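Posting this for the archive.
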Amino acid sequence: MHERSIQLVYGGGTTGMMGAIARTLVQLSGPDAVMGVTPSSLLAHERPDAPGEGQHQGRKVPASWRRRMGLSSGGKATAGAVGATTTTTPDETAKLLLDSQYGHVTIVPDIQRRKRYMMELVRDGGPGSGFVALGGGIGTLDELMEVVSWNQMGAHRRGACMVNVEGYWDGVLQWLEKMMEERFAGEHVKHILGSVTDAGEAVAWLKGYEEGRASVSQKAQKRGK
């Protein structure tokens, strides 16, 4: 990610695999390379290093994230924002906590706002942006299936892929095959959700997904002429 100047949007935790990835990317690329999104209810668990409620430091949103967060230069949320602001009173919809070790973290009221906000940041990212699932639990699977569903409904046009190390996601792939076999899902799901074995393949797959969509769109436009 550092070599390709890729920015990371993640759940904002400081522990486990994602905490290690966020911390390493900040060390290599600086804090502006990482944006975490954490619901206030999980702050004590996912951000034990953070100050308590009402003690967050209000700062300006970094310029590299301001456009993607839908903020004007004055720090006010525009129509496209998900309630993001830069001050920190307890009744706000979102707060920004700057933390140089793990990047910048936005604190939102609940898990649904977190998922939607992360999706919108990725949706509005640069070419080749998309969703990547490493090994994880129920929450990871929930978020993965939701971004695939949102793609089908037109909420975004980004691909998603699973990093399938040592067959971790094999069961999910078999389930998806069964789902298509029983006609609960169409073959197009295979094109939205991919399976790769390492990070380099994930970057290439997401880029290929975007190029594939562009090619299909161009062909459709030609047919319409």
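The two ends are 40 Å apart (CA to CA). The chain has eight helices and seven strands.
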